[in-house]
Amino acid sequence: MRLDLFGVVGEDFTPTTVRAALPYSGDITVTINSGGGIAVDGSAIYNILSAHRGKVAVEIIGIAASAASLIAMAGHTITMLDGSILMIHEPHNFTYGDSDAHQKTVEQLEAHAVAYAKVYAKRAGISEAAARQVMKAETWFTPDEAVAAGFATAVVDRLAVPFARVDKKYEARMQAVHARAAASPRGLQKVADTKASWARVVAAMNKSMGFAPAVKPEEAKPKVELTGWAKIVEANNAFVRRHR
């Protein structure tokens, strides 16, 4: 499963919407393109993803900044695509009021900063004091810099991801099975019957449109008892003829 976290943390996606979108268990991929948002919502989403019953693969496809960078730390793997950015800084807030109100905001911000520093320090394998220095400097990381600093695990240069792939060994094995089936007497008869069935359909279509018949009447094979896939194809052909 893939979960896209795009936009503002706490507005475009919230702890509630993330929780609702997650399956009960199983591996997931979380793609992030967010400049941040509400600090406490970032903490909540980080903890929701960290507690998920399954591997969490985070992919930063544009920017993971501020609260979004904390969310990214929940990944068992954190992959940054070429051209993406990671930004880590101290939590911010606005206050309107007297000096007591501003002091209370300072206390709140410090509490958030200490909590964030623990997460960054755990991910990068550094001390909380070192993590606070990274935060206070408002550090911007390229993919390679983030990997070197321990805040990401890999850099990927990817144009597109295939939706599916074919196992070459399986494909070869199935081709061999089909070849053996077609080479058997019964298989050869089914192939011949199917070709004759489609020839009759083409002839009827050509006749209805005024074209020369693809198969002359005298060359058409007599109707035979159809089995297997040839029977299914003929049934489909009959349905098409009835509803033209």
UniProtKB/TrEMBL annotation:
Belongs to the peptidase S14 family. Keywords: Cytoplasm, Hydrolase, Protease, Serine protease. The keyword Ribonucleoprotein does not apply. The keyword Protease applies. NCBIfam families: Clp_rel_HeadMat. PANTHER family: ATP-DEPENDENT CLP PROTEASE PROTEOLYTIC SUBUNIT (PTHR10381). This is ATP-dependent Clp protease proteolytic subunit. InterPro entries: ClpP, ClpP/crotonase-like_dom_sf, ClpP/TepA. SUPFAM superfamilies: ClpP/crotonase.
